[in-house]
Batch of 2 targets.
Target 1
Amino acid sequence: MKYCCFDLAGKAHCGLVESVAGRDEITRVLLTAPEDSNGDLEDIPTRRIDHLPLAEAVLLAPVRPSKIVCVGRNYREHAAELGHEVPTEPLIFLKPPSSLLPPGGNIVRPKMSQRVDYEGELGVVIGKKCHQLAGDEDVDPYILGYTCVNDITARDLQNKDSQWTRAKGFDTFCPVGPLVTDEIDPWTGVGVETRVNEEVRQQGDTRDFIFALDIVIRYISQVMTLFPGDLISTGTPSGVGPVMAGDVVEVTVEGIGTLRNFVADV
Ligand code: MG
């Protein structure tokens, strides 16, 4: 199942996304947000709308997380490009929900930073409260679905500060979308690609994670309770780099779609 969130006559709605004649369309309005349904997507009451092509919808962020948990340095080549050792346990940090940005929104470069980077990543949306999972516990029942995330980073401030709250936390620094799907399997490998002005900058595959998704989710659950709607961003492949005002940044995750955003100065 795929869903998105969109604006309909000035109100936010979630909508079921289905392929109709090879084109993604919003076919129904979901009366309950998927994250409020305990992950049981089939039981959501729906009402029909006139089919709305996904490409014509005014999309909103498809998640309402209480927190955004990110994994740093989860691809070997990316750790190397920033001059870091491969971590021996997952490195996690938070982005505030206020950093969320919908598809099509402007990533705003703050005056405080001289270097703002893209980081294309696979996002995981939690569907069920998750706390202190056992070492061999299956994480699949806790996953609502997957989306694209751009973990925008003020690289100069990240290097300057001893922790990353400022560098990762500016408003608009967490583009997410365009939709959430449970129809991919990151364990078997999905491609993660970032393009700037149509030029490919990052190409990774989730098979190359240093820490697989089940290890990451069990690890985070030892630290903090994950709630339905919480977002985990799983780390970026090599090839990070800066963006400037006027750039168009696209993150494509295989089987999900493309998250497209624009860059502007404050
Ligand atoms: Mg990142």
Note: The chain has four helices and 20 strands.
Target 2
Amino acid sequence: MHSLHQRRLLLGVGGGIAAYKSAELVRELTRQGAEVRVVMTAAATEFITPLTLQALSGHPVRQALFDAQAEAGMDHITLARWAELVLIAPATADLMARLALGLADDLLTTLCLATEAPIALAPAMNRQMWAAPATRDNATLLTTRGLHLLGPADGEQACGESGLGRMLEPQEIARRATTLLSSGPLAGVRVVVTAGPTREAIDPVRFISNRSSGRMGYAVAQAAAEAGANVLLVSGPVALPAPAGVERIMVESAEQMYTEVMAHPCDLFIATAAVADYRPQITAATKLKKTAAEMSLPLTRNPDILAAVAALPQPPFTVGFAAETDQLEQYARGKLEAKRLNMIAANWVGERAAGAGFESDENALELFWPGGSLTLPRAAKLPLARHLVKVISEHFHQLRPSP
Ligand code: CTP
């Protein structure tokens, strides 16, 4: 997911054994497109060298509050203003205590006082230290002041003990940083979008598929990402690049799409994929030869991905798509009810589509939900997708006031 594209993160590294994971965190943040500047405490340099973090972030690492050379480039106030998020990982018990007191006795604590950016801490310490009343009070105080605590996690600790106090894994810290930085109606909401056709193999060279270009689904994924969501796009074979800020998993068959969707829990599921309803009962291991004058191909039903998601014990908000050549409302409402969806977006295909639909750049949608409907007039797929995502997010929040 490249949702940190060009976001400016100041990573503060405290002096704990988990500092070795900061290297991986810098990699993860930069991999997601973030600009990272690193500030280390003196104790942190005992655990990991500034050079490592300089090499990974591509910028000199700052340590000293009074550093004539560094101040000439970006002084500590400029650095504090530059940051969109100050992320401290690991945050030791000592660092939390100094922050709680409002000390400014080194560069990192000074920056925390000087910045207007949100501050997030990923605590890492021995479980007793985390449980100590002083640390508990400091954590409460810092949270009351609006600082965000990311973790800690429960589990095995470097000291050999086990309990609450482990630093969250770098990927999880990066994910939470993304959430903190995102804004928009779907900020922090986990969205899975399926898109494109599926391919059902007959033999190693042939398959059954359909004309879906995937463009509507890709536009929906992009619009959801623009609305601040963490978007996973599970896509069948199409020739489209992944939209910015969207994580993508490519699949071929309906069964693969089903497996990926089920492996990724979400808050909002939007099924735009034109999933093949059937697949060949048997996929031949070698290329079939034309020996007979006629042949028939026994087919078997594919899993209905959307219905399966909607039938989960705690289903996400589900949105289906329906492409119809006739009786649009009747069929669309039929699917809404049969699959127990929250909403369905229907569009005309074939003659009634008049140039819109599958392979076109434009589309129009009729939205139906239990007790209501709305027409989204014909538009290019991206503006249409943005309109759709706006309506979906309104309904989503009505149903779940605090996602
Ligand atoms: N869908 C799915 N998995 C399937 C089939 C469909 O997730 N195996 C989803 C599509 O992504 C779409 C909606 O279900 O959101 C379409 O419903 P469906 O009843 O399958 O549409 P059609 O295949 O067009 O159905 P019919 O042939 O009965 O009109």
Note: Residues 194, 254, 271, 273, 275, 277, 302, 304-306, 320-323, 335 surround cytidine-5'-triphosphate (CB under 6 Å).
